[in-house]
Structures are given as structure tokens and as C-alpha cells.
From TrEMBL:
Lineage of source species: Eukaryota, Fungi, Dikarya, Ascomycota, Pezizomycotina
UniProt keywords, alphabetically: Repeat
Protein name: Pentacotripeptide-repeat region of PRORP domain-containing protein
Keyword Transmembrane: no
Positions of PPR repeats: 641-675, 787-822, 823-857
Domain of life per record: Eukaryota
Biased composition annotated in UniProt, kind: Polar residues: 1049-1083
Chain intervals with Basic and acidic residues compositional bias: 120-133, 155-172
Region (Disordered): 63-93, 117-182, 1005-1093
Pfam entry (one): PPR_2
Alphabetized Gene3D superfamilies for the sequence: Tetratricopeptide repeat domain
């Protein structure tokens, strides 16, 4: 023992001196030398020889697995020492303070000590311990040193940092076009991180190579024999080739070859050594190593050749391209060892990956021949094991498609044979089963198109099924593959593999026809469900290529089983009722009665007869169907189920008939039926649309009392929608936070995706992108599932900020990345965004994008397309430039009219049954009058271009179509169409028709904007509670506000901070008596709901223009006052038009105009933008909203602000007021008699409207047509 210690001390001293030398290649003036990371403890020089006799585990206090000892701070401070550049030391003390001399023990003993007591290791040892075989941990000797050239490492670190900075700069330069797109797109850079990990592992491998080479060196004075060194080197460096660089691997293999060459001839004949050396050298790709491996395999006796020997030799043969020798080896392995099929798997995998198909078939034939000649038991099971092992090879399908190409080349060369096709059938079978029966979900890319997506070459895969026809169980195999593609646990979404399913189904039907094999009815039913949903999302009903359809499937079902099963008929009836397809529903209802006449078969489907007409929004037909169902159930002594009541309430919701829905719900409860969540939800939706917060809360309380079940998350969505429509966004967010807590605690059932979508959409419509994205991030942080409506809100936010290109990128890129498929609703949003930016060609490109992907259009997408088409044709015909010249009133948009007729001819009865949101529909456009959305836009555009003949033709066609669809003689136009007609009549100067249209619009608005009280729902056995009389002291007089003139109320003159922040909606409600009203009082009209208070803004604006053109100022003031008294409000455009008309009267009503501007519009005025001497070009978004030269670009729909044109008119009115004061008030129009107080004086203006007067006086002087005409006219 002492002699061994002496030799180790000499060797350690020599290594220490070597480490003290300057680094190779460094100049003498360098102060940074290689330093050892482990130094000798001071107790080494004072230890006694008695310590050597004690067991090492008694002396060692080291923790297991390389953890620092208790109280040792060296591990914790290693990072600090490394940063300071100090020399790190590792002291390993025994329990008595002495040093454990690990270098005095052989490696085998150290390995045992590490397993029992825990041997301290350096960082590279702990990192690479798992890579060494059999749990062996290579420990460094106590005096060994590791040296690092510090300046070189620092230089490499600096270069890596610079490279990383350059990569970051490049990534920033190549970022997305819009910040929102960058946030929504998935993060990148994983490949770069993987490259950095690989580099670090390579560096670690180079560090360990130094230790492995040193282990086999001759540094010690007393060395073991060459055989022991060779064995130790191979044992310690097993699998090191995976971590070493090619240069280090070559150095290590040369070292091992040198050690083998230094052996004596007798030692080289050791069979065990030959086996070990062959297995160790096989991975090293050098000529010397491969030559020696070949020689070693040849000299190893056949009876001593194991699986490891065959695998190592096969690796060398295949790498050298010696396929003949590999086949000989494979044949011998199958005969010599019992587990030779492992060699077969390795050999076949090589042939498969290299696409060496003759070699692969030879391997399979050798395997089959060996099993046939074998006398061992289990030969039959061994035969199946070959293909089982083939199925374990990953990604077989791409290789199967390559093999199919090889088969085609053989067929063209006429060199194919039956053996080749037998192999092909088995191989393709395993590839297809592996691809479609794997339990793992496939990684695929969602496509914009419903029938697109994934990276599967569908046509090439379809051809593979033809090779399976000659299998004995081909029919069963086709059915098995078909069911795996359409089952619930399928790897791919059905829409993305529909074409592959069509190929399988085609082959299966051929087999079924030739062999009389009937398909299982379960497969028929599952495929029917997939096909109905697939074709329901497409704009076409068939495709050019072979594609299985619902009609084809039903026909084959009847061929195999004589009739469609009851489950199949029920599915078709439910599907067609949800789509509003009357013809197909009646067809299959007759089929049901014919083949299943029992009442028990029809009873569960009676509600679908009502639901069919409910989706078509045909309320009279719904009532008729409900009565028929009641009569049928009465004949069989059955009570009407709750589902029928719920469907009837849903029909009233589709027609937006709140009173009717409440009546049905009351009747349901009074007749003893217990409602459920589906009974309350439609009524809550109608209340939410109107902004009736108290009504929704009342209904929620009655739900808790009557149903006594957990609330649904959709109920909170209705409450949030009501708060949003009433303008209380803060309270809406508070309700959403409360709903989150309730859902997390399982007191509320359902998903909150819809509630978050309501908040996001509300902020998007208010053009608040920051709040929209903040809510979106909140939604993601709460792990709430995103859906297509979430991205629809983001698209709306970008489109409202005139970033439609970025919005369209969300549709094309971001939504597929998140697994959401766009619908016609998203395309309508993008088209509308381009239309608002007057980019009509781009809007038509969006529609083309949708059409090419066969996405089923909707009412909103068709309406947006017609508007873009009409505007584009209007520009092409140069109609606007011809307005002031030779005007041709007969010019019409002929191409757009043709498109309208085409859409009306293709108008399906189920187009109004779509369940995704409908953009561009009016606040109260009845769903059954879907064509009004098409006609309104064209009527408005033709009215602008004075093509009144086209307006009359469009109106007649609309009425004719309405009579055809609804069967009604009196067809009334909805409010959005009335507004378009008023624009046409106004342009034609037909003021009587404008007034008649206004009366129609007012009548409709009073009808469907009124609020309905929620009744108290009581069952028959529930006694009504007596009403308590109210306190007489609480009675308040009604505020009629029927005053002859406006009053300056101190409470409403200065708007509150809340009013200023929230916009105009609050201020208009708090000051409804500021405009003059008529002395004549109207009949009492119901107050409109908060969500419908803006419904008359557009018709009112046209009516005010008509009254202004007739100088009927008294009627104008009376109309506005009456509307405010009744609870209606005006949007920003109507307010500005009203102020401008007040300024344009003769004489101008200056004081009234300034006072109303001061109270309603000027609080949100941000001031004027700086206009330089070089000129100022207003932004397009500001010009579109009339905010030129104002510090604003975007306004939310409810925000009020004076427009540039309004302020110019106010300036012109001041000039006229000064002229009136100077010249006297003579020549006044009789219609304005008695209204002198609305004209006012300059003194009154300074007192009542100082901010408005300052805004007018500080208005920048711009040389434009408006100021020149109004302010600088002679």
C-alpha cells in the first residue's frame, strides 16, 4: 500500500509541475495559467500511516451522490469564486479532519465506495455519470488537475454573446408587421436553443476525452500491463463516441488500437477480448477500426458469437456497403442464436431507412426461410413477430409511399413478381395501421379551409389502399382502417382526412360488392355523423374528385341492411332541423313514419319539428308545429315535454319577441311544468340585448328559486352582455371576476369563454385596443379556452384602427396556428375593414380567398361582398366625377345587380340558420328578412348616385321576394332599409316620402326597443304574495320636460368627471331637457331599453337634413326634444349634423348651437393639432370621422366630440351673429317668430359656452374649400 502511495505521489507531483507551465501557445507575459480545480488539503502532509489501515467509509463524511457535506459552503460559493476569477478548491475531510486519499484505491473499489458512501466528484463527473455503462462513475484522482485557458474561454464567451446579440437583432428586424400579430403568433427559436444544448454537450464530451486518454496513458512510474489498461479504457469510455467530437473520437480510437497492437500474440487470441474490442470499435468510423472489426469477427468462433457480436459486425458491414456479407451474417445469426430476430430488425430498419427495397425483401425472405426450416416450437408465432417488430419502427407511412413508387417502376420495367407484391401488401398494411391506429395525437397544421390542413399527402395515401385488395382479410382491414379514421379517438380531425376516408370507403364498397360483405351499422352511423358536419361547413355539396357524400352513404346503408337504422334516421332529422333544411327534414320524417310507424320512435323527435321552424325564424310556423305536437301527444295521453317548451321560447328569441318569450315561460310554469336552464337562457339573451340589467338579475333570482340547480356560465354571459349594452364596463368586469371564482369553486357549470368574448368584443367595438389586449391576456392567464369568436373580436379591434392587413393576417395565420378555423363571420369583418378604408379591391380579394377555400358564406359575408362590389363598380364607372357635369340618372350598377340576383337564386332556406355571429345586421333586423341586408346597401348607393329607377326596382324585388318567402302581402322594410330609402328620397328632394319613412321607422323603434317587465313566475300550487302598498312619501312627479324653451340647469351645465370619461351616453341621459320641445304632447310611448336607445340615429339624421332643407326649424327642435324626452339618444354623427343645421338656419340659432355643443360635445374635445407652415395632411382615419386638424383619430360609437366641419359652421354662425348685432334683426323668417332667445348675443355666448367659443377662435387657419366658403366668403 505504501509503495503504491509513493508512486502516486511522484506522478501527482509531475502533473502539478506540468499544470504550472504556461498554456501552450501563450506568450511569456501572460499571467493567466492553467490552474487546478482540486488542490491537496493541508492535512495531506500531516496524516499518519495509521489512517491507511482504517476502512475508507469510516473516514469519509461525504454525502451520497456528490452533495456537499453539512456546513460546507464551497458548493454554494463556487459561482462567486468563478466570477471573481479565484482558484476553486475542493476539500474532502474525514470525520476527524483528515483527508480521504481516494487515489490509493483501485477504480473498482472506488466505484463500490461511491455506491455505498457517496464519492465526491467534480462537475463533469456528476454530469456524465449517467452516460457511463452499468452505473460506473469515473472518479478523478485526488491530485489530478483540470486546466482551462481562461483568456481563451473569455474570448469565446464574448464571441458567443456577440453572436447572440446579432441573432436577437436579426429576429427583431424580421418580426411581424403588427405588434398584435407578434403577440398572437407562437414563440420561435427552439431550434436555436437545441443547437446551444448540443454545443454544450459536445464541449462536455471533449472534457471527458482528456480524462479517458489520460487513463490509458503511461504517466505513472509503475503501470499495469497493457491488457489491463486496454480493458480499463474500453470499460470507462463505453458509448463515449456519442459525446465526442470527431477529432477526439479519432484520438481515442487510435489510442485503443495502439494498446491492442502492443499486446502479445497470445493475449490477442483471447476470445473474450475480441468480443469486447469488436463491440467497442464498431461505432468508430475509421478505416483501421473497421478493418480490425472485420478481422475480429472472422476470427471469433461461431459458437462464441453472441447477439452483440452480430449487431456490431452488422453495423460495420452495412456502413461499408458490404451487403452480401451482411446477408450471410444475418442468415448465420438466425440459425446460431435464439434471438436472431433482433438482428433481423436492425438489418430491416437499415434497408428501410436507406430505401434499399431489394435488400429489405431479402431480409424478410431469409427470416421466413429460417423459420420454415426451424424445428423449434412456436414457429407460427415467430412469423407474426417479424411484422410486429416492423410496426415498432416509427414513421412507416412515408417509407411505404416511397416503396409504392418503387413498385410502379418495377411494373413499368415488367420486373415485378408475386413475391414483391406479397411483401408490399404486408408492409403497406403495417404502415397504414400504424399511422391511423396510433393512440398519440398527430401533429398537424390547421388550415383555413374546412377540408384542408395537416401535412398528409392524401392522394398518395389513397393509392396505397389499392395494394391491399388481394389480402384475404381485405374487407375487414378496410373497415378497421375506416373506423380508426372516424372514431372519437382518431389522430386527425375528420375534415383533414375526408379524402383519405373517401379512398378507403371506395375500396371497401368494391370488396363488399364482390364478396357480399356488409358493413357494420356502427361504422355507418359514425361516418354519417362525420359527413353531416363536414358538408355542413362547406359552400358546395359535392366535389370534383371522388368524395363520399351523405346520399351515397345512405344508399349503401340500404343496400347492406335494407333500411337505415332508427339511430341513423334520428341523426338526420336532428341535423336537418338544426340547419333549417325544410325539404330534407320532411323527406326523412316521411321515411321515419314509413319504416318506424311506432309512436315511441317518433316521440323523442317531436321537438325537432318545432326546432326546424325556429331555426328558420318563422314564428307562425313554429306556433303551428307546437300545436300539432300538443295534439299528437294528447292523442297518446302524453304530456308535452320540456324540450318542446324550450324550443318554442327559442323561436321567440330568434324573432326577438321578448314579450312572447316571457308569456310562454309564464304559461309553462303555470301549467305545472318545471323549467330548466334551456328555458331561461333565451329570455336572458333577449333581456341582455336590450341592456336590461335588472331584468336579467331578476330572472337569475327566479331561476335559483324555481329550478334549484347550479347556475350556468352562460347566465353570467347574459348579465355581462346586459351591462355592456347599458354602458357599464367596470361592473361587467366585476361580474366576470365573480364568475371566475364561482366556476373555480364548482358552484357554476360551464365555460367562461363566451363571457370573456363579450368583454373583448365590447372593447373592440369601442376601439380600445389596449383594453382589448389586456382582457385577452387576462383570458390566457386564467387558462380559458380561446375560440373563433375570441379572434373575431381581435380582428374587429384591428379593423377599427384601420389595420385590416394585420386583421387579415390573424385570419390566415394566427387562427390556424391556434387550431381555430375561420368562418364567414371573420371574412365579413375583414371585408368591412377594407371597405371602411376604401380599399374595395382588397375586400374583393378577401371574398375570393373565402370562395376558393369553399367556406360556406353567410348573410353578413354576402352583404359585405355586395357593398365592396358596388363601390368598386362605382369607381370604375367614374360616377362621382360626373355628378357636377352631365348627370345621367339612368346609370346603374349593372354588374352588382347581376351578383345580387345570383345570390338570391342561390339563397338557401337554411342560410338564416347559421349559429355564428352575423355582422352588419341591424339592431332589429328580423332574421327571416335576410334579403334586406342585401338590398339596403344597394338602395343606399343608388340613392347617392341618383339612380332612382334602380331604387324603385330594388324595393319592388324585395317586396316580391318577401311575399314569396313569408307568404305575407304587406311587407314592411326594416329600419336599416328605411334609412337607405330616406337617403334616396332626400337626394331626390322628396321630403314627403322622407317624412313618411320617418314615421315608419319611429313606429318600429317604439315597438321593439321598449322594455318589458319580468313577471313573477309562480306554479299553480304557489299562492301569490299580497302586494304591499308603497309609501306615499316616496311618490315622485313624472318629469315630462315639456317646456317651451330650453333651461340652463346648473346641475347639468358642467358635466361630471364620470360623464366626461364615459362619453356621451351618460351626459345625454342626464340632460334630456336642454333642447326646446313642442307644446303639443305626444301619446305616451314606452321608454326604449338602454341597448336600443341609439336605434333611430341614422333615420333621424336623414330626417333632420330634410327638415333643414325645408327650413322647418321649429319642427326640427320639436322632434329632437321629443326623442330625448322619450329616452332615445343620438350618435356623434347625428349630433354634429344637428348642430350644423342649427348654424345653417336663417338666421342661425347661435346660442342654442353653442350651448348644446358646450354641454354635449366639447367636454371630450382634445384640442387642435399643430399645423405647420409646410402644410398638414390629416390622417385618413381622422378624415373619415370628420376630425381633421383635431388631436384625435378614433372615436368609440358612444363618444361625442365636435367635428371639424361643425366647428367651422359654428365660426360662420358667430360671424353672422356679429353682423346681426351690428345691423339689427330685420328680415326674420316668420317660422322662427318667438325664437329670438335661441339666437342670443356675443355676451351670452361668452357666458354660456366659453370653451366652445375658445375652440372656434383658436381653430387653425387652413386654405381649404370649407373655410373659404364659410369663413372667407365675400
Amino acid at each position: 500500500m505504501l509503495e503504491r502511495a509513493k508512486a502516486c505521489l511522484h506522478s501527482g507531483a509531475r502533473d502539478s509541475l506540468r499544470c504550472a507551465q504556461p498554456a501552450p501557445g501563450h506568450h511569456h507575459y501572460h499571467h493567466h495559467h492553467h490552474r487546478s480545480t482540486r488542490t491537496l488539503h493541508s492535512s495531506f502532509w500531516t496524516h499518519g500511516a495509521g489512517d491507511l489501515e482504517l476502512p475508507p467509509w469510516l473516514l469519509s463524511s461525504n454525502p451520497a451522490h456528490g452533495l456537499p457535506a453539512h456546513g460546507d459552503s464551497s458548493a454554494g460559493n463556487s459561482r462567486t469564486r468563478k466570477k471573481r476569477g479565484r482558484e476553486s478548491t475542493a476539500t474532502v475531510e474525514a470525520s476527524d479532519g483528515s483527508l480521504f486519499l481516494d487515489f490509493l484505491y483501485p477504480p473498482q473499489a472506488l466505484a463500490w465506495l461511491n455506491q455505498t458512501g457517496g464519492q465526491p466528484r467534480e462537475k463533469w463527473e456528476g454530469r456524465n455519470a449517467r452516460r457511463l455503462p452499468d452505473g460506473f462513475v469515473q472518479t478523478s484522482r485526488g491530485y489530478a488537475s483540470r486546466a482551462y485557458p481562461q483568456p481563451a474561454r473569455a474570448q469565446v464567451h464574448d464571441e458567443s454573446e456577440r453572436d447572440g446579440q446579432r441573432r436577437d437583432d436579426a429576429s427583431r428586424r424580421l418580426g411581424p408587421s403588427h405588434p398584435l400579430i407578434g403577440e398572437l403568433l407562437p414563440e420561435a427559436g427552439r431550434a436555436e436553443e437545441a443547437g446551444q444544448v448540443a454545443t454544450s454537450e459536445l464541449e462536455g464530451g471533449e472534457d471527458i476525452a482528456q480524462e479517458l486518454i489520460r487513463l490509458s496513458g503511461d504517466d505513472g512510474e509503475e503501470q499495469t500491463d497493457a491488457m489491463a489498461k486496454l480493458r480499463n479504457t474500453m470499460s470507462a469510455s463505453r458509448d463515449s463516441y456519442k459525446r465526442l467530437s470527431p477529432e477526439k473520437a479519432l484520438l481515442l480510437s487510435d489510442r485503443v488500437l495502439g494498446l491492442y497492437d502492443s499486446l502479445q500474440d497470445s493475449d490477442k487470441e483471447d476470445s473474450r477480448l475480441k468480443v469486447e474490442l469488436l463491440c467497442w470499435l464498431a461505432p468508430y468510423m475509421t478505416t483501421q477500426a473497421e478493418a480490425l472489426c472485420t478481422e475480429l469477427y472472422r476470427t471469433i468462433p461461431v459458437e462464441e458469437r453472441t447477439l452483440a457480436v452480430y449487431q456490431a459486425a452488422l453495423n460495420v458491414f452495412l456502413r461499408r456497403g458490404r451487403h452480401v456479407q451482411a446477408l450471410i451474417l444475418h442468415k448465420e445469426a438466425l440459425q446460431n442464436i435464439g434471438n436472431g430476430d433482433q438482428v433481423t430488425k436492425t438489418f430491416f430498419t437499415y434497408a428501410l431507412l436507406e430505401h434499399r427495397w431489394p435488400l429489405a425483401m431479402n431480409v424478410e425472405s431469409q427470416h421466413q426461410a429460417a423459420l420454415a426450416s426451424s424445428q423449434r416450437d412456436g414457429g407460427a408465432s415467430k412469423t407474426n413477430m417479424f411484422w410486429f417488430q416492423v410496426s415498432q419502427i416509427p414513421q412507416l407511412l412515408p417509407h411505404a409511399m416511397e416503396f409504392a413508387k418503387y413498385l410502379r417502376s418495377l411494373a413499368q420495367a415488367k420486373t415485378d413478381n408475386e413475391q414483391v407484391y406479397t411483401f408490399a401488401r404486408r408492409f403497406i398494411r403495417e404502415a397504414l395501421l400504424q399511422e391511423f391506429e396510433s393512440p398519440e395525437r398527430a401533429r398537424y397544421k390547421t388550415s383555413v379551409a374546412p377540408q384542408g390542413g395537416s401535412s398528409l399527402p392524401k392522394h398518395e395515401i389513397g393509392k396505397l389502399f389499392g395494394h391491399l385488395r388481394d389480402l384475404s382479410d381485405a374487407a375487414k382491414l378496410y373497415e378497421r382502417l375506416l373506423f380508426s379514421m372516424i372514431s372519437v379517438n382518431r389522430r386527425y380531425p375528420y375534415a383533414q382526412i375526408h379524402r383519405v376516408v373517401s379512398f378507403v370507403y371506395k375500396e371497401l364498397r368494391k370488396k363488399a360488392a364482390s364478396e357480399g360483405y356488409p358493413m357494420d351499422e356502427g361504422v355507418f352511423l359514425t361516418l354519417l355523423d362525420r359527413l353531416t358536419h363536414f358538408w355542413g361547413a362547406l359552400a358546395v355539396k359535392r366535389e370534383i374528385h371522388h368524395s363520399v357524400s351523405v346520399n351515397r352513404l345512405v344508399s349503401d346503408w340500404e343496400v347492406d341492411h335494407e333500411k337505415v337504422s332508427l339511430d341513423g334516421v334520428s341523426h338526420l332529422l336532428r341535423w336537418y332541423s338544426s340547419q333549417g333544411d325544410l325539404a330534407n327534414f320532411e323527406k326523412w320524417w316521411a321515411y321515419l313514419i314509413q319504416h318506424y310507424p311506432e309512436f315511441a320512435a317518433r316521440k323523442p323527435l317531436l321537438a325537432n319539428k318545432i326546432y326546424l321552424h325556429a331555426r328558420r325564424a318563422d314564428l307562425p310556423k313554429v306556433k303551428e308545429a307546437f300545436g300539432e305536437v300538443q295534439e299528437t301527444l294528447r292523442e297518446h295521453d302524453e304530456s308535452i315535454p320540456t324540450a318542446c317548451w324550450n324550443t318554442l321560447i327559442h323561436a321567440y328569441s330568434r324573432d326577438d319577441d321578448l314579450q312572447g318569450g316571457l308569456d310562454v315561460l309564464s304559461d309553462m310554469v303555470e301549467q305545472g311544468f318545471k323549467p330548466d336552464e334551456y328555458s331561461f337562457q333565451p329570455v336572458m339573451e333577449m333581456l341582455a340585448r336590450r341592456g336590461d340589467v335588472e331584468g336579467v338579475r331578476d330572472l337569475l333570482h327566479q331561476y335559483d328559486t324555481l329550478v334549484q340547480k347550479r347556475r350556468e356560465a352562460s347566465f353570467y354571459g347574459s348579465l355581462i352582455q346586459a351591462l355592456v349594452n347599458s354602458g357599464d364596463m367596470d361592473e361587467a368586469e366585476m361580474v366576470l371576476k365573480e364568475a371566475l371564482v364561482e366556476v373555480r369553486s364548482a358552484r357554476v357549470r360551464g365555460s367562461l369563454t363566451g363571457s370573456f368574448n363579450i368583454i373583448i368584443t365590447a372593447y373592440a367595438l369601442r376601439r380600445d385596443v389596449d383594453a382589448t389586449m389586456q382582457t385577452y391576456r387576462w383570458m390566457k392567464s386564467e387558462n380559458i379556452r380561446l375560440d373563433s369568436e375570441t379572434f373575431g373580436a381581435l380582428i374587429q379591434a384591428l379593423a377599427s384602427y384601420r389595420q385590416t392587413h394585420a386583421a387579415f393576417k390573424i385570419l390566415r395565420v394566427v387562427m390556424p396556428e391556434h387550431g381555430c378555423r375561420p368562418t364567414a363571420f371573420h371574412y365579413a369583418l375583414c371585408m368591412t375593414g377594407y371597405i371602411n378604408q376604401k380599399m374595395f379591391k382588397d375586400a374583393l380579394e378577401v371574398h375570393k380567398h373565402m370562395t376558393m377555400r369553399k367556406i360556406k358564406p353567410s348573410i353578413s359575408s354576402n352583404a359585405a361582398y355586395l357593398e365592396a362590389r358596388a363601390r368598386k363598380e362605382e369607381i370604375d364607372k367614374n360616377l362621382w366625377d360626373r355628378r357636377d357635369h352631365d348627370w345621367d340618372s339612368r346609370v346603374r350598377l349593372d354588374e352588382t345587380m347581376k351578383d345580387l340576383k345570383r345570390l338570391l337564386q342561390k339563397f338557401g332556406e337554411g342560410d338564416n340558420a347559421v349559429k355564428h355571429p352575423q355582422h352588419r345586421s341591424g339592431p332589429r333586423t328580423r332574421v327571416r328578412s335576410v334579403s334586406s341586408a342585401y338590398f339596403s346597401t344597394l338602395i343606399y348607393i343608388h340613392g347617392q348616385t341618383r339612380c332612382f329607377a334602380a331604387v324603385k326596382q330594388l324595393l319592388d324585388e324585395y317586396r316580391s321576394l318577401g311575399r314569396k318567402v313569408n307568404g305575407l302581402t304587406d311587407i314592411q322594410a326594416p329600419i336599416d332599409m328605411i334609412g337607405s330609402l330616406m337617403m334616396a328620397h332626400l337626394t331626390a328632394g322628396q321630403h314627403d316620402e322622407v317624412e313618411r319613412c320617418w314615421d315608419l321607422a319611429k313606429e318600429q323603434a317604439n315597438e321593439f326597443s321598449k322594455t318589458e317587465p319580468v313577471p313573477q313566475l309562480r306554479s299553480p300550487n304557489q299562492d301569490a304574495e299580497p302586494e304591499e302598498p308603497g309609501d306615499i312619501l316616496q311618490l315622485q312627479p313624472s318629469s315630462d320636460a315639456q317646456e317651451a324653451g330650453f333651461q340652463i340647469d346648473s346641475k347639468s351645465t358642467a358635466p361630471s368627471k364620470t360623464t366626461t370619461d364615459k362619453g356621451a351616453s351618460a351626459s345625454t341621459k342626464s340632460s334630456q331637457t336642454l333642447v326646446p320641445s313642442s307644446d303639443q304632447s305626444d301619446a305616451p310611448t314606452p321608454k326604449p331599453s338602454p341597448g336600443r336607445s341609439y336605434i333611430l340615429s341614422r333615420p333621424l339624421r336623414f330626417y333632420l337634413y330634410s327638415l333643414g332643407a325645408q327650413q322647418r326649424m321649429r319642427d326640427m327642435l320639436s322632434i329632437v326634444s321629443r326623442l330625448f324626452t322619450q329616452g332615445y339618444t343620438m350618435d356623434n354623427s347625428t349630433w354634429n349634423a344637428f348642430i350644423q343645421l342649427l348654424c345653417q338656419s336663417s338666421p342661425p340659432l347661435v346660442l342654442l348651437a353653442y350651448t348644446l355643443t358646450e354641454r354635449f360635445l366639447i367636454p371630450n374635445f382634445p384640442g387642435w393639432a399643430p399645423v405647420s407652415a409646410n402644410g398638414y395632411v390629416p390622417h385618413a382615419s381622422a378624415r373619415q370621422q370628420g376630425l381633421q386638424y383635431i388631436r384625435a383619430r378614433y372615436l368609440s360609437p358612444g363618444q361625442l366630440m365636435p367635428q371639424y366641419k361643425t366647428l367651422v359652421h359654428l365660426g360662420a354662425a358667430v360671424l353672422q351673429l356679429r353682423s346681426i348685432e351690428a345691423m339689427g334683426r330685420r328680415g326674420q323668417i316668420d317660422d322662427l317668430a318667438g325664437m329670438d332667445k335661441y339666437i342670443g348675443s356675443m355676451r351670452q355666448l361668452r357666458k354660456e359656452a366659453p370653451r366652445t367659443l375658445f375652440a372656434v377662435q383658436s381653430m387653425p387657419k387652413v386654405d381649404d374649400a370649407l373655410q373659404n366658403r364659410l369663413l372667407r366668403r365675400q
